[in-house]
Amino acid sequence: MGARVRKLVSAVVVLGVVAGGAAWWLTRPDPWPAAHWDGLGAPDVANGEQLFWAGGCTSCHAAAKSEGDAKLVLSGGLPLKSPFGTFHVPNISPDETAGIGGWTLADFGNAMTRGVGKQGEHLYPSFPYGSYARLTSKDINDLWGFLKTLPKSANVAPPHDLPFPFNIRLSLGGWKLLFFTDKPRVTVDTSDPKIARGQYLVEGPGHCGECHTPRNALGGFEAAEWLAGAPNPEGEGRIPDITPGSKTIGSWSESDIANYLETGFTPEFDSAGGSMVEVQQNMAKLPASDREAIAAYLKAVPAK
């Protein structure tokens, strides 16, 4: 091999290493600095419970068809089918082995708001950290405090069942680079405290866009279609448009929406159905002011 060829090969290798290093740097797991979770003090467990219901934690993490106090046993295991394979919801009870009882506040907060697991790995966005990223540090602390009061479960959830290449977690760094953000999803009048609160609840803990917004082929939100309806992730029918242009709720008033979230009944005397039943039951546990704030935000988002 001539000197010129050796130099060319060496240059290509160096460029490859540099490019690989740059790609890793841009897509590496990115948890908060440890100091981010300092000084939060004792959690407000009552506020944590409200966030728990706003986030619908039982809908995914409790055993199927749980009722009453059994809903508070967050044993995991529920299969979530998707175009990328089947995800299995983890145990998030305070069990030290099967659950997250051995986690710290920082571990929990980084999972919730940065999509980074306890071992520093990328988490799959089947866990809606893309929405939870908007939660304040105080609310994370309060929610963590409440979760630690719940019953333990020793159930070990199965691993995800994902085909290649979706089983390669490193690829999630590229997904985050393209789609992960903690910025507002739409522009609304946040000078109105009620609308601002509604935006926080809907775009953050409520994670309403996870079902009501369509996604592209890579699983990222189609940003221009925020809350405009999407295929049902469970495979049957569609999740409705809930913007002011909706044929479903476009004609409803703020009080109609707030009443629906409290009672499950529409202005037409119909009732919530499908997966919305559990969502409505969770929302009914929130303060009336929060349901009113959600309604105000839904009337303020751009119509589709």
Automatic annotation (TrEMBL):
The keyword Transferase applies. Coiled coil: none annotated. The keyword Kinase applies. It comes from Pararhizobium polonicum. This is Diacylglycerol kinase. GO terms for molecular function: electron transfer activity; heme binding; kinase activity; metal ion binding. It holds the Pfam family Cytochrom_C. Residues 43-151, 193-302 form the Cytochrome c domain. Keywords: Heme, Iron, Kinase, Metal-binding, Transferase. Gene3D superfamilies: Cytochrome c-like domain (1.10.760.10).
